[in-house]
Amino acid sequence: MKIITQLCFAGTSDEALKLYERAFGCTVKTLIHYRDAVAYGWEKPNEEINDRVYHSEIMFGDYEVRLIDLDNSEKTELTQKVTMYVGFDTEEEVRNVYSVLAEEGTITRELTCPPYMVIIGELVEFLLIR
Question: Which InterPro entries does this one have (predicted)?
């Protein structure tokens, strides 16, 4: 058994994917847009959402995360209320990822070195995941 996190967006999954590839070096295992789902006969045609992500499987090492676009922002509110913690092996990794996410995100805690860990920081990335 494995637990899979799914992040829901309102049309910005592709942006999130590009950001996470740049920040974390994740890899795309599967990426299906709505236009592909229509071609497979899974969904009815809707030009407004053709470019949105229907299903994706993104790998952060051995950990799978799914990114999808829902049809409106009200349905994505739960994702926006989720806090995700990401741990790294080195201070350098933390600093690199933090700097990429902070470019367009909002810093809520500057990088600091508390006595209980090597380094910690907190931010809300521009796609509203804290």
Answer: Glyas_Bleomycin-R_OHBP_Dase
